[in-house]
Amino acid sequence: MKTSLRLLLAMSLPALAVGLRAAPAAELWADQCASCHGEDGKAQTKQGKKLKIRDYSSAAVQAELKDDEMLKAILEGVTENGKERMKGYKDEMSNEEAKSLVAFIRSLKA
Ligand code: HEC
To answer: Which of 27, 29, 36, 47 to mutate to test the pocket of ligand 1 (most atoms within 8 A of CB)?
Structure first.
Protein backbone atom coordinates (compact mmCIF):
# COMPACT_ATOMS: atom_id res chain seq x y z
CA MET A 1 0.00 0.00 0.00
CA LYS A 2 2.71 2.41 1.02
CA THR A 3 4.81 1.48 -1.98
CA SER A 4 2.00 1.81 -4.47
CA LEU A 5 1.07 5.22 -3.11
CA ARG A 6 4.66 6.35 -3.38
CA LEU A 7 4.87 5.02 -6.93
CA LEU A 8 1.61 6.71 -7.84
CA LEU A 9 2.88 10.03 -6.50
CA ALA A 10 6.24 9.62 -8.21
CA MET A 11 4.49 8.94 -11.49
CA SER A 12 1.72 11.46 -11.31
CA LEU A 13 3.52 14.57 -10.07
CA PRO A 14 5.96 14.93 -12.98
CA ALA A 15 3.32 13.56 -15.35
CA LEU A 16 1.04 16.44 -14.41
CA ALA A 17 3.74 18.89 -15.34
CA VAL A 18 4.76 17.36 -18.67
CA GLY A 19 1.71 15.45 -19.84
CA LEU A 20 0.90 11.77 -19.53
CA ARG A 21 3.07 10.63 -22.42
CA ALA A 22 6.21 11.14 -20.33
CA ALA A 23 5.07 8.88 -17.50
CA PRO A 24 7.61 6.07 -17.95
CA ALA A 25 10.55 8.47 -18.19
CA ALA A 26 9.12 10.45 -15.30
CA GLU A 27 9.04 7.26 -13.26
CA LEU A 28 12.67 6.47 -14.08
CA TRP A 29 13.61 10.03 -13.27
CA ALA A 30 11.82 9.97 -9.91
CA ASP A 31 13.32 6.59 -8.98
CA GLN A 32 16.89 6.89 -10.22
CA CYS A 33 17.75 10.48 -10.92
CA ALA A 34 15.78 12.81 -8.66
CA SER A 35 17.87 12.06 -5.56
CA CYS A 36 20.63 14.12 -7.16
CA HIS A 37 18.95 16.13 -9.92
CA GLY A 38 15.69 16.85 -8.04
CA GLU A 39 12.17 16.05 -9.25
CA ASP A 40 12.15 19.38 -11.10
CA GLY A 41 15.74 19.10 -12.38
CA LYS A 42 16.88 22.06 -10.31
CA ALA A 43 19.23 19.87 -8.25
CA GLN A 44 18.15 21.53 -5.02
CA THR A 45 18.73 18.25 -3.17
CA LYS A 46 21.39 17.47 -0.58
CA GLN A 47 23.36 15.52 -3.20
CA GLY A 48 22.67 18.04 -5.94
CA LYS A 49 24.07 20.88 -3.85
CA LYS A 50 27.04 18.86 -2.69
CA LEU A 51 27.90 17.84 -6.25
CA LYS A 52 27.13 21.34 -7.60
CA ILE A 53 24.83 19.99 -10.28
CA ARG A 54 23.48 22.49 -12.77
CA ASP A 55 19.83 23.56 -12.84
CA TYR A 56 18.36 21.70 -15.82
CA SER A 57 15.23 23.84 -15.78
CA SER A 58 17.32 26.87 -16.71
CA ALA A 59 17.15 27.97 -20.35
CA ALA A 60 20.87 28.78 -20.34
CA VAL A 61 21.79 25.29 -19.10
CA GLN A 62 19.34 23.71 -21.55
CA ALA A 63 21.20 25.55 -24.32
CA GLU A 64 24.52 24.10 -23.11
CA LEU A 65 23.17 20.56 -23.03
CA LYS A 66 23.42 18.51 -26.22
CA ASP A 67 21.12 15.55 -26.75
CA ASP A 68 23.91 13.18 -27.81
CA GLU A 69 26.08 14.18 -24.86
CA MET A 70 23.18 13.74 -22.47
CA LEU A 71 22.50 10.29 -23.85
CA LYS A 72 26.15 9.37 -23.49
CA ALA A 73 26.22 10.72 -19.93
CA ILE A 74 23.18 8.66 -18.96
CA LEU A 75 24.53 5.46 -20.48
CA GLU A 76 28.26 5.85 -19.77
CA GLY A 77 28.29 8.20 -16.80
CA VAL A 78 30.08 11.47 -16.20
CA THR A 79 33.72 11.72 -15.17
CA GLU A 80 35.74 14.83 -14.51
CA ASN A 81 39.51 14.73 -14.12
CA GLY A 82 39.33 10.96 -13.84
CA LYS A 83 36.77 11.09 -11.03
CA GLU A 84 33.31 9.67 -11.44
CA ARG A 85 30.67 12.38 -10.98
CA MET A 86 27.75 10.23 -12.06
CA LYS A 87 27.63 6.53 -12.77
CA GLY A 88 26.47 5.16 -16.12
CA TYR A 89 23.11 3.42 -16.37
CA LYS A 90 23.69 1.23 -19.41
CA ASP A 91 23.43 -1.97 -17.35
CA GLU A 92 20.15 -0.83 -15.81
CA MET A 93 18.22 0.62 -18.71
CA SER A 94 17.76 0.32 -22.44
CA ASN A 95 18.89 2.81 -25.03
CA GLU A 96 15.22 3.70 -25.54
CA GLU A 97 14.72 4.43 -21.85
CA ALA A 98 17.85 6.59 -21.79
CA LYS A 99 16.56 8.46 -24.86
CA SER A 100 13.21 8.99 -23.19
CA LEU A 101 15.07 10.51 -20.24
CA VAL A 102 16.83 12.95 -22.57
CA ALA A 103 13.40 14.05 -23.82
CA PHE A 104 12.17 14.21 -20.25
CA ILE A 105 15.07 16.48 -19.24
CA ARG A 106 14.19 18.75 -22.18
CA SER A 107 10.66 18.97 -20.80
CA LEU A 108 12.02 20.32 -17.50
CA LYS A 109 12.90 23.65 -19.12
CA ALA A 110 11.07 26.39 -17.23
C1 HEC B 1 24.79 10.53 -7.60
C2 HEC B 1 24.09 11.67 -8.16
C3 HEC B 1 23.49 11.53 -9.55
C4 HEC B 1 22.49 10.69 -9.97
C5 HEC B 1 21.74 9.64 -9.14
C6 HEC B 1 22.26 11.00 -11.35
N7 HEC B 1 23.08 12.00 -11.76
FE8 HEC B 1 23.12 12.86 -13.61
N9 HEC B 1 24.69 14.02 -13.06
C10 HEC B 1 25.25 14.04 -11.81
C11 HEC B 1 26.39 14.98 -11.81
C12 HEC B 1 27.26 15.31 -10.62
C13 HEC B 1 26.47 15.49 -13.13
C14 HEC B 1 27.47 16.51 -13.68
C15 HEC B 1 27.19 17.90 -13.22
C16 HEC B 1 26.18 18.70 -14.03
O17 HEC B 1 25.73 18.27 -15.12
O18 HEC B 1 25.84 19.78 -13.59
C19 HEC B 1 25.38 14.88 -13.87
C20 HEC B 1 25.12 15.15 -15.20
C21 HEC B 1 24.03 14.65 -15.90
C22 HEC B 1 23.71 15.04 -17.25
C23 HEC B 1 24.43 16.09 -18.09
C24 HEC B 1 25.40 15.52 -19.05
C25 HEC B 1 25.92 16.59 -19.97
O26 HEC B 1 25.62 16.52 -21.16
O27 HEC B 1 26.63 17.49 -19.51
C28 HEC B 1 22.58 14.35 -17.58
C29 HEC B 1 21.83 14.43 -18.89
C30 HEC B 1 22.23 13.53 -16.43
N31 HEC B 1 23.14 13.75 -15.44
C32 HEC B 1 21.14 12.70 -16.38
C33 HEC B 1 20.85 11.84 -15.34
C34 HEC B 1 19.80 10.84 -15.37
C35 HEC B 1 18.83 10.65 -16.51
C36 HEC B 1 19.87 10.16 -14.19
C37 HEC B 1 19.03 8.98 -13.75
C38 HEC B 1 18.99 7.83 -14.63
C39 HEC B 1 20.96 10.75 -13.41
N40 HEC B 1 21.52 11.75 -14.14
C41 HEC B 1 21.31 10.37 -12.14
C42 HEC B 1 24.85 13.32 -10.71
C43 HEC B 1 23.86 12.36 -10.69
So the answer is: 36
**36-71 pLDDT, tens per residue?**
999 999 999 999 999 999 999 999 999 999 999 999
User: pTM of the predicted model, to two decimals?
Assistant: 0.84
The rounded Å distance from CA 74 to ligand 1 centre is: 7
The neighbour count for residue 90, using CB atoms within 10 Å, is 14
Distance 1 CA to ligand 1 centre (A): 31
Query: Please, are residues 42 and 55 in contact by the beta-carbon 8 Å criterion?
Result: yes
Burial bucket for residue 101 (CB in 10 Å: 0-12, 13-18, 19+): buried
Nearest to 54 by CA among 38, 76, 67, 30: 38
Write down the mean pLDDT value for the chain. Answer: 89
